[in-house]
Amino acid sequence: MDQRERLQVTGALRAGRARADAPSASSRLQGKLVHTCERQTGRLAPWTRIRPDSSAMALHIRDFREADRAALIALWEACALTRPWNDPDADVDRAVTSRDATILVGTVDDVVFASVMAGHDGHRGWIYYLAVSPDRKARGHGREMMAEAELWLKARGAPKVQLMVRQGNETAAAFYTALGYERQDVTVLGKWLTPSPEAE
Ligand SMILES: CC(C)(COP(=O)(O)OP(=O)(O)OC[C@H]1O[C@@H](n2cnc3c(N)ncnc32)[C@H](O)[C@@H]1OP(=O)(O)O)[C@@H](O)C(=O)NCCC(=O)NCCS
């Protein structure tokens, strides 16, 4: 069974995950018997045992820890997510000290390979800093990180999740479309409430 089929199977089981630092569903299911579902027809196939896949080790998704900071920011830089006007350290500080935001990291052998920041503004859920290490792309990790972030937001009562994609980031736009995200008929406006770093 490949990684994508496994994720389809585990999707429903993720809803039962109680703690953000528990192993991700795909990790927890390794060695267990599960029903698989054929992608095309939706028919249930016979029971299958999920085996650890040593070539594409399962991602362990957990809350950010202070010891992750340098690796996390290096990941954001490798994924071209940092901008001169956003201090990544300050972004981490704000997220980890807020009750309404979180940073989840995806690790293999406790090495950070993926991240996502999620926040609830009291009305909508928002996603920032979704990143998968360039050498681990196209293995379903981005989809896994988004599934965990969506669960986190849903658990806090967010009825809808939104995100912003920078102009020209066609890869991210195609990725989010594959996950069911739709272009919204809105214009994003912004205004600095502190002295604009762009003016410096
Ligand atoms: C965008 C990003 C997170 C995707 O991560 P990933 O682990 O490679 O994506 P996945 O393997 O989980 O792909 C999930 C789905 O998106 C699709 N997808 C991913 N990249 C795609 C692309 N360039 N074009 C079309 N579809 C794409 C995959 O085909 C897959 O669909 P499927 O499951 O139906 O086959 C990763 O490319 C990244 O870190 N980019 C740099 C940072 C960035 O731009 N972040 C978003 C900021 S808004």
**Count, helices:** 6
Quantity of strands, as a count: 7
The gyration radius over C-alpha positions equals 18 Å
Oligomeric category: single chain
Question: Care to give the gist of this entry?
Answer:
By secondary structure, the protein is α+β, with helices and mostly antiparallel strands. Helix content is 30%, strand content 22%. The chain has helices at 3-14, 25-28, 69-78, 88-97, 141-155, 170-178, and strands at 33-37, 44-49, 60-63, 101-108, 111-120, 125-132, 161-163.
Question: Could you walk me through the main structural features you see in this protein, from its secondary elements to its overall organization?
Answer:
- The chain is α+β, with helices and mostly antiparallel strands.
- The protein has a single domain, classed as Gcn5-related N-acetyltransferase (GNAT) (Aminopeptidase), CATH 3.40.630.30.
- It contains six helices and seven strands; from the N terminus they run H-H-E-E-E-H-H-E-E-E-H-E-H.
- The strands form two sheets. A five-stranded mixed sheet has the order 3-4-5-6-7, with helices on both faces.
- Helix 5 links the parallel strand 6 (125-132) and strand 7 (161-163).
- The protein is globular, with a radius of gyration of 18 Å.
- The chain binds coenzyme A.
- Residues 4, 79, 81, 130-132, 137-143, 165, 169, 171-172, 174-175, 178 line the site of coenzyme A.
How are the SSEs ordered, and which strands pair?
Elements: H1 3-14, H2 25-28, E1 33-37, E2 44-49, E3 60-63, H3 69-78, H4 88-97, E4 101-108, E5 111-120, E6 125-132, H5 141-155, E7 161-163, H6 170-178
The structure holds coenzyme A.
Coenzyme A binds next to β6, α5 and α6.
